[in-house]
Design a protein that fits this description.
Blueprint (H helix, E strand, L loop, with lengths): L2 E5 L8 E6 L2 E7 L1 H4 L10 H15 L8 E4 L8 H17 L7 H14 L4 H15 L10 E3 L2 H10 L7 E6 L6 E9 L2 E9 L5 H11 L9 H7 L6 H10 E3 L6 E3 L11 H15 L14 H29 L3 E5 L6 H9 L5 E4 L7 H13 L21 H9 L4 E4 L5 H8 L4 E4 L13 E5 L5 H10 L9 E4 L3 H4 L13 E2 L3 H5 L10 E2 L1 E4 L5 H14 L3 E6 L11 H9 L5 E4 L2 E4 L2
Parallel strand pairs: 1-4, 4-5, 6-11, 11-12, 14-21, 16-19
Antiparallel strand pairs: 1-2, 2-3, 6-7, 7-8, 9-10, 13-22, 14-15, 15-20, 16-20, 17-18, 21-22
Length: about 600
């Protein structure tokens, strides 16, 4: 048996762990699900590692000593010297806070001086100490030797996307806010080998940090969900002034890069993250110099919406310009998208509708947590020398397992009215059809933060007020629309030129404006929605719920989003599901065969 475990390290937010066994991704979980801190900002994935070790023991009889290699999704050797020293200090403070680094202050001081004076990377020591601490806490013996493989960050994103795209040869575009050197990288993949064609240095233009800087202008924090800005953009028809200001700072296809800052705005390539952040904040002030004081849950701020619209349009143009660069310079017609910025569903929609590419795969693992998966699969094939099973995902339900007996015991202790209905979810569909909001919990949890039919909140999309109700439950802005799900065979009935999208990674336009208006809870003002396509093979009970709802209502779209109640992240365990159900305005809950009611 061949086993690789990879994890996010260092991780500012969304740290995760992933495990590959005999060429198959068998487990992946984000730290936030276990620490119960949304996005796990500044936390090492120690609980996720412990959970992974226990899962492998229970399901594969594999102990940490059986793991062939560990991997991380950054390569510290590629950082500049002063970044290494800063990184060391940050990891030391984190290691002390979470009690896994250095028993002796003398060892810490010695390593810090070596790092600062000679640029020697002691980063691996922290990764090794984290692993050994997690092994001990999980109740296993610590292996004599723990080997950690570093994988370049954008290569991790590229591998996570490519190996589950079903493409053999293609280009991969990784656009992210972080990386050792680059913010955007274009890859050519031939016969499973990755070749970096070009990388845009972060100091020459960074879409991820640009979005964070615009978010800061509008009152959002680093750990906030910046997809709110994409939603906000749909409430404006825009302003040429703001977009022109952005176009005056950036250039598309300057002969070398597909997009970048104009020469006078660039910093040196070895600029620090702090300098790059300051650079982007100045860019935002140049686009719009005024302060915007706005409570996001009060009346819509028109200036904020116009600014978000300009940012969104610029991002779409950057995607289109980069797509044309790839097609023209690389003669490529198949593209895979990854990196956090690739989760901009409107930008990927415009790229698809442009017909620059014949085939497009938007990775559901594009976010920061997906780097752990990419590091695992790349290490398994390119370092360990084994071969990954290369297919599209069967599903992304990769979290822990919960037995029917555990569910039954949890229900019995809940004191809610409950009855067992098994897989017959017609009654659940009837509750949704009457306008009620339900929680939905079954099986293993989704690896990504979006609910995909195992941890979801579900409502009738034809009732506009349901968007506000669900947003209040989740602690989101009242004006945001909800994602949706439908049976895969109904996809062409509603949307223009769609492709199968099992993971809500892109948006599609409704065929007709009036059609979209029938579904106000999921319909964005400019005529699109963000659907998940569901097949019965993919998720039987989830499919049956959507079908039963269609049989009752005549339309096959349901509004659904993540089963997470503010301020917590996505529900993981049955007990957390009961707690969230009890504490908010959800009317009923389907809990792996059980129907729970409040009244």
């Amino acid at each position: 048996m061949a086993v690789v475990i990879a994890f996010s390290f260092p991780a500012d937010y969304d740290p995760a762990v992933a495990a590959v066994v005999d060429g198959k991704l068998v487990y992946a979980i984000q730290e936030e699900r276990l620490s119960r801190h949304r996005r796990a900002v500044g936390e090492p994935p120690i609980n996720a590692l412990i959970s992974c070790f226990k899962f492998l023991k229970d399901n594969f009889n594999t102990s940490p000593s059986d793991v062939n290699l560990f991997a991380v999704d950054f390569d510290p050797r590629l950082f500049q010297r002063r970044m290494k020293a800063s990184l060391y200090w940050n990891q030391l403070m984190k290691g002390i806070k979470f009690d896994y680094a250095y028993g002796s202050k003398y060892g810490a001081i010695s390593d810090y001086l070596l790092t600062k004076s000679f640029g020697r990377s002691t980063y691996f020591k922290f990764a090794e100490m984290l692993i050994t601490s997690a092994i001990r806490r999980a109740g296993f013996e610590t292996p004599f030797n723990v080997s950690v493989v570093p994988v370049e960050h954008h290569l991790s994103h590229a591998a996570a996307a490519y190996y589950f795209s079903s493409f053999s040869d293609c280009s991969v575009l990784t656009i992210d806010g972080t990386g050792e050197m680059f913010s955007t990288v274009i890859w050519r993949v031939r016969n499973r080998e990755f070749e970096r064609i070009i990388g845009i240095p972060s100091s020459y233009g960074n879409l991820g940090i640009l979005w964070g800087s615009f978010g800061a202008k509008l009152g959002y924090q680093k750990a906030d969900d910046l997809s709110a800005l994409m939603d906000l953009a749909s409430y404006s028809s825009g302003s040429d002034e703001f977009l022109d200001n952005l176009n005056g700072i950036f250039t598309l296809n300057d002969g070398l890069y597909p997009f970048s800052l104009k020469q006078r705005y660039r910093l040196k390539e070895n600029s620090s993250p702090e300098e790059i952040m300051a650079q982007n904040l100045k860019i935002v002030d140049q686009v719009y110099g005024k302060r915007i004081e706005w409570n996001h849950n009060t009346e819509m701020n028109k200036e904020a919406a116009i600014l978000a619209y300009a940012l969104q349009r610029f991002t779409e143009n950057a995607f289109l310009g980069t797509g044309k660069w790839i097609r023209d310079k690389m003669n490529e017609r198949k593209l895979v998208l990854s990196g956090s910025a690739a989760l901009n569903g409107r930008a990927s929609m415009e790229l698809w509708y442009s017909r620059i590419f014949n085939q497009l795969h938007v990775s559901p693992l594009a976010g920061e947590s997906g780097g752990a998966v990419g590091a695992a699969v790349y290490t398994y094939e390119h370092v360990l020398g084994k071969r990954m099973q290369q297919n599209k995902f069967d599903n992304l339900y990769l979290g822990p397992k919960y037995t029917d007996e555990e569910i039954k015991e949890t229900v019995a202790n809940s004191k809610f009215s409950a009855k067992y209905i098994g897989d017959d979810v017609n009654e659940v569909a009837e509750i949704i059809a009457t306008g009620k909001v339900i929680a939905w919990f079954q099986g293993r949890s989704e690896f990504v933060s979006l609910g995909l039919g195992n941890r979801s909140i579900v409502a009738d999309p034809t009732q506009a007020e349901n968007a506000g109700i669900v947003n209040r439950i989740m602690g989101r802005e009242y004006w945001r629309q909800l994602p949706s799900s439908l049976m895969v065979e109904d996809l062409d009935n509603y949307f223009v030129n769609p492709f199968v999208s099992e993971y809500k990674t892109t948006t599609f336009r409704f065929k007709e404006i009036e059609m979209g208006k029938k579904f106000p809870a999921i319909h964005y003002a400019n005529g699109f929605a963000r659907p998940q396509t569901v097949s019965r093979d993919h998720n039987k009970t989830w499919y049956d719920l959507i079908k039963a709802f269609k049989d009752l209502k005549g339309d096959g779209l349901v509004a659904d989003t993540s089963f997470s109640t503010f301020p917590e992240p996505l529900v993981e365990t049955p007990k957390e599901a009961i707690k969230s159900f009890a504490a908010n305005g959800i009317d009923a809950m389907y809990l792996q065969g059980w129907l729970l009611l409040k009244k």
